[in-house]
Write a structure and sequence with these properties.
- This protein is an all-alpha fold.
- The chain has two domains: about 5-85, Uncharacterised protein YqeY/AIM41, N-terminal domain (Hypothetical Protein Yqey, Chain: A, domain1, Orthogonal Bundle), CATH 1.10.1510.10; about 95-145, Arc Repressor Mutant, subunit A (Orthogonal Bundle), CATH 1.10.10.
- The chain is built from seven helices and no strands.
- Helix 3 (about 45-70) packs antiparallel against helix 4 (about 75-85).
- The protein is globular and about 55 Å long.
Length: about 150
């Protein structure tokens, strides 16, 4: 079953359950999938869908931070509820300790010793954790490991 069919079935289920938040998020995701498919003129692969979801999660987290800064508690709660639904589509997330171990292994394997080599380390890490860990967390741990902080 492809991504579009799965989302369509989940939309029908959300309609029957009268879950307005879930329904809105699923429709937004389906719209994003359709837009991306039109843009590239082919169906989305699972990896491309995962990238789309990761981007959506990052956008939601950024919005939450901005709303918190602006004192908009109502919008923070709305975004957090929607983020929960989007997160269901990501694979099991790695714990901070697991990510730390991957970072340490990548630093050793690349031989990186200074913050200037951060790109090399990130390049080694990202294929291993794609969609399984927050990029900001990875970046912070790499900076610590290379002594940038």
């Amino acid at each position: 079953m492809n991504v579009r069919e799965d989302l369509t079935k989940q939309i029908a289920t959300a309609m029957k359950a009268k879950d307005k938040v879930r329904l809105a998020v699923l429709r937004m995701l389906l719209s994003s999938v359709k837009y991306k498919e039109i843009e590239q003129k082919s169906d989305l692969s699972d990896e491309e869908f995962l990238q789309l979801i990761s981007t959506t999660v990052k956008q939601r987290k950024d919005s939450i931070e901005q709303y918190k800064t602006g004192g908009r508690k109502d919008l923070v709660e709305k975004e957090e509820a929607e983020l929960e639904v989007v997160m269901e589509f990501l694979p099991e997330q790695l714990s901070e300790d697991e990510v730390r171990a991957i970072v340490e292994d990548a630093v050793k394997s690349t031989g990186a010793a200074s913050p200037k080599e951060m790109g090399k380390v990130m390049g080694a890490i990202m294929p291993k954790v794609k969609g399984k860990a927050d990029g900001k967390l990875i970046q912070d741990l790499v900076k610590k490991a290379l002594g940038a902080e």
